[in-house]
Amino acid sequence: MPSELELQISPIVQESLVHNTRTLVNLQSLTASLFGVSAGILGLESYSGFLYYLIFSLITSALFYVVRVAPTSIASEKPPLDTSRYFRGPVEFWTGGLMNGLAGFILTWTLFYGLVSA
User: Cross-referenced Pfam families, in alphabetical order (predicted)?
Assistant: First the structure.
């Protein structure tokens, strides 16, 4: 959590937090559908499909962190994996889009599984 002095020097704007969260959720929803397509084409079933989704969603969050968040955190000398300046918290950053993208994943997973196995 930033100190009061840090907030006075560099305030956190709520509109920016909402925009950042919306951008991450949109990315995770889009990739969830793409992961569903690939899981259906690969013929994954049951727990292996859900594990596939979980792993690749976390990889997507990690890539987003490396490309967009980490360079600015390094420049501002923040501790590693600190997302509090750009998101409401680390849990929201790493797992926020999992439930939002799950429906799209299942939809495209079952569609492409049915198309490939038919």
Answer: EMC6
- The closest alpha carbon to 26, from 81, 97, 75, belongs to 97
Residues 6+ positions from 92 with CB-CB distance below 8 Å: 21
Distances (CA, A) of 61 to 65, 68, 97, 118: 6, 10, 9, 34
> How many other CB atoms are there within 10 angstroms of residue 51's CB atom?
12
Mean pLDDT per block of 10 residues along the chain (118 residues) reads: 64 79 89 96 95 94 84 63 75 82 95 92
78: left (phi over 0), alpha (psi -120 to 50) or beta: beta
**C-alpha 21 chain-centroid distance:** 9
Based on its alpha-carbon atoms, the radius of gyration of the chain, rounded to whole angstroms, reads 17
